[in-house]
Structures are given as C-alpha cells and as structure tokens.
Amino acid sequence: MISLARQPWCVASALLVPLVTLGSPGWLKLAGVAPAWAVLWLLPWALVDGPVSGTLAGLGVGLMQDALHPGPLSTLPALVVLGWWWGRLGRRSRIQRSFNLGLLALLGSVLLAGSLILQQRLWQLQDPAAWHTLLAQSLLTAVLAPVLCSLQLRLWRSRSQAFLPVPALRR
C-alpha cells in the first residue's frame, strides 16, 4: 500500500483541522463546546497509515492546534500518543465498525482533554469549565466519529490501495 503521507491532497487535508476548529458551526456544538476535530482527523489517518505516520501526523496536527491557542497548555503530547496507539491498532487488525470508531474517538478525546486538565494542574491554572469541556467534547466527538471517520477510512483505504504497483508478468 502507498503511504498516505506521499499523496499531497491527503497531507493537505490536515490543514482543514485548524480551519474547522476555528470555524466550527454553532449547530455542531454542545453547550458551546465543539468536537475534537484533531481526533476526528487523526483516528482514520493512523488506522490506515500505521504508527510511524500516525505519530508524525499527531505531531503536525498538534503543532497546528497549539499555534491556534497561545499559552502553556499543549495538545501535542496527547495527539502524538494517540497517533502511535491508533496506528498500532490499525496494523494489528482492520478496524471498520462504527461502534469501534466511536469508542476509539471517545477514548481519544477523553485522553486529549484529560492531558489538558493535567497540564492545568501542573501549571497551577484554574479552569472551572475543564470537566464540562471534557464531557461535552468527548460526547460530541464520539457521536460524530462513526459517520465522519468511516467516510475517511473508506476514502483513504481506497486511495492507498489505488496506487499499488502492478506485479510484473513472468515469462
């Protein structure tokens, strides 16, 4: 299979994450909290392309997310770990059921928000809405994941298999 990282339009799709994060429509928010768009993009990427590419994609998306939000808190560590973990899961078995995608997205968004809460504790910052954000974002991400991630999985799996080299005929 051809790596998704070698296809420019797949890599360019990562640029949609900060755009959708900034311009998330109001009807797609739960109590003012948008879904974890980085998780919804990274999950199918890592499942299709493996742990190394998932880790690098998590690094890239994490850097873009951190550029949007100034301050000491970072989504980078959680996204790198999620990219690696989901990449390993994708290599072990083919995950494609909607329930599995929703559960993985739920766990990913809880880990992402949990890492931010942990960083707030380490930096001694007070955010009374942190747990509200964790619950709302995790629920919304888990609800959207079966639809969005399954579409991305189909698209990216078909694109990564479409460019397989044709085996040479033996004479």
From the structure above, extract its key features.
about 0% strand, mainly alpha, single chain
Task: Give your account of this protein's structure.
The protein is mainly alpha-helical. It has one domain (4-159): Arp2/3 complex 21 kDa subunit ARPC3. It has helices spanning 8-12, 16-22, 37-49, 51-68, 76-92, 98-122, 130-162. The longest helix has 33 residues, at 130-162.
Weakly predicted, low-confidence segments: none
Oligomer: single chain
Treating each run of at least 4 consecutive H or I residues as one helix, how many helices?
Answer: 7
CATH architecture: Orthogonal Bundle
Estimate the strand proportion.
Answer: under 5%
Intertermini distance? 25 Å
Helix and strand element order:
HHHHHHH
Using the coordinates shown, work out and report the CATH topology: Arp2/3 complex 21 kDa subunit ARPC3
- CATH class division: Mainly Alpha
Total individual domains: 1
| Cα-atom radius of gyration | 17 Å
User: Got a strand count?
Assistant: 0
Mean pLDDT: 86
Percent of residues in helices: 55-70%
Shape: globular
Q: Structural class, please? A: mainly alpha
How would a crystallographer describe the biggest sheet?
Answer: none
